[in-house]
Amino acid sequence: MMTSPSGPHTTLPASAAPLAAAWGPHASQPSLLRLLAGAAERISIPAAGSKAWPAAGLNLPGPALGQALEERGTPWPQPLVSHYARYFRDGNRTAYEGLVAARQQRLTRAVVMALASDPGRQGAYGSDAEAWLDEVIDGAFLLCEQSSWSWAAHDDVFRRTGCVVPDLATPYLDLGAGEVAAQLAWLDHVLGRQLDDRAPGLRRRIRGEVTQRVIRPFLDRLDWHWLGLDGDVHNWNPWIHSNLIAAALFLVDDPATQAQTVARCIEGLDRFLASIPADGAIDEGFAYWWNGAGRALEGLALLEQATGGVLDGGLPVVRELVAFPHRMHIGGAWFLNVADGPARAAAALPWDMLHRWAVRLGDPEAAAHAAAMATGAPDPAAGLGRVLHALLELPEPASTASPALPPLVAVTYLPSVQIMVARETGGTADGLLLAAKGGHNGEHHNHRDIGSAVVAVDGVPLLVDAGQPTYTAQTFGPDRYGIRAMQSNWHSVPSPFGLEQGTGREFAAGVLSAPTQERPQLELALGAAYGFEPRAWIRTAELRRAPGRITIADRWDLPAPATGGTADVDITFLTAGTLSLGPEGTATVRPDGIRAVGTAARTPRGAALRWDPAAVVVLVDEWLLDDPLLADVWGPRLTRLRFRTPAATAPCPVFRAAGAFTLTVEATP
Question: How far is Cα 218 from Cα 602, in angstroms, rounded to an integer?
Answer without folding.
Answer: 52
